[in-house]
């Protein structure tokens, strides 16, 4: 082992993973290491302008930038992504599906909300029934769902991924960090007001 190898901290790979995206509890090895070195990782990322967010109940962790001066400046290690109208609508609908799932009194032991590709398309189509942009939205719906998948708010079922025409997706609970209940309700109120005005 050389000198450089000796200087590498045992949680370096976890920090590298967090800089790329979130860590989910289903990634057993990394999740266990994250919890083991939680305090060390927290102290390290704080020094470079990042905050470690761990939601142990929902089983996800991510890094967020915090302001480092009075002008709201940030270090800039994590770039903010502008995702556009169509993916935003899909994310909001996913958040609503997750909220309804988690607040279902008859849900017993199921921890994750799964939805098929076709079910998600139908749900989006129902929401868009009065939208003037419905036709162009639906034309690219598969592409937009893939984009949301790439953003990390959906996770494809790897066990049954051979079903290419109608894969199953898990709605990742990290979407709660992107869309709060208050934002969801605000969106629904705006939608209701729009429907009543047309």
Topology:
Layout lengths: L2 H5 L4 H9 L2 E2 L3 H9 L1 H9 L3 E6 L4 E6 L19 H18 L11 E3 H11 L6 H6 L1 H11 L2 E3 L11 E4 L3 H4 L2 H17 L1
Antiparallel strand pairs: 1-3, 2-3, 4-6, 5-6
Fill in the keyword field for this structure.
198 residues, Arc Repressor Mutant, subunit A, alpha+beta, globular, disordered C terminus, single chain, three-stranded antiparallel sheet
* CATH architecture name of the largest domain: Orthogonal Bundle
Tell me the span between the first and last alpha carbons. Answer: 71 Å
How does the major sheet shape up?
Answer: 3 strands, antiparallel
Total individual domains: 2
Low-pLDDT residue spans: 193-198
Arithmetic mean pLDDT: 82
Total strands: 6
Rg value: 20 Å
What class, by secondary structure content? alpha+beta
- Label the overall shape: globular
CATH classification class of the largest domain: Mainly Alpha
User: Count the helices. How many?
Assistant: 10
What is the percentage of strand-forming residues? 5-15%
Task: Give a brief description.
By secondary structure, the protein is of the alpha+beta class. It contains ten helices and six strands, in the order ααβααββαβαααββαα. It has helices at residues 3-7, 12-20, 28-36, 38-46, 85-102, 117-127, 134-139, 141-151, 175-178, 181-197; strands at 23-24, 50-55, 60-65, 114-116, 154-156, 168-171.
Q: How would you describe this structure to a colleague?
A:
It is a single chain. Helices cover 50% and strands 12% of the residues. The protein has 10 helices and 6 strands. It has helices at residues 3-7, 12-20, 28-36, 38-46, 85-102, 117-127, 134-139, 141-151, 175-178, 181-197; strands spanning 23-24, 50-55, 60-65, 114-116, 154-156, 168-171. Helix 5 (85-102) crosses helix 8. The longest helix has 18 residues, at 85-102.
């Amino acid at each position: 082992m050389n000198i450089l190898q000796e200087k590498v901290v045992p949680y370096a790979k976890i920090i590298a993973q967090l800089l790329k995206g979130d860590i989910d509890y289903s990634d057993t090895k990394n999740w266990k290491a994250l919890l083991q070195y939680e305090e060390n990782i927290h102290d390290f990322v704080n020094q470079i302008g990042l905050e470690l967010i761990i939601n142990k109940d929902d089983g996800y962790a991510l890094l967020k930038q915090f302001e480092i001066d009075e002008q709201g400046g940030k270090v800039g290690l994590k770039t903010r992504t502008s995702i556009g109208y169509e993916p935003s609508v899909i994310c909001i609908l996913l958040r609503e599906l997750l909220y309804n799932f988690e607040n279902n009194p008859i849900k017993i032991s199921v921890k994750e909300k799964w939805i098929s590709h076709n079910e998600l398309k139908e749900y989006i189509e129902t929401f868009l029934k009065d939208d003037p942009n419905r036709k162009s939205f639906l034309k690219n719906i598969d592409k937009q769902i893939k984009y949301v998948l790439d953003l990390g708010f959906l996770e494809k079922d790897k066990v049954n991924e051979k079903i290419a025409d109608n894969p199953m997706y898990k709605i990742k609970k990290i979407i709660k960090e992107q869309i709060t209940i208050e934002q969801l309700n605000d969106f629904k109120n705006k939608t209701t007001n729009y429907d009543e005005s047309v």
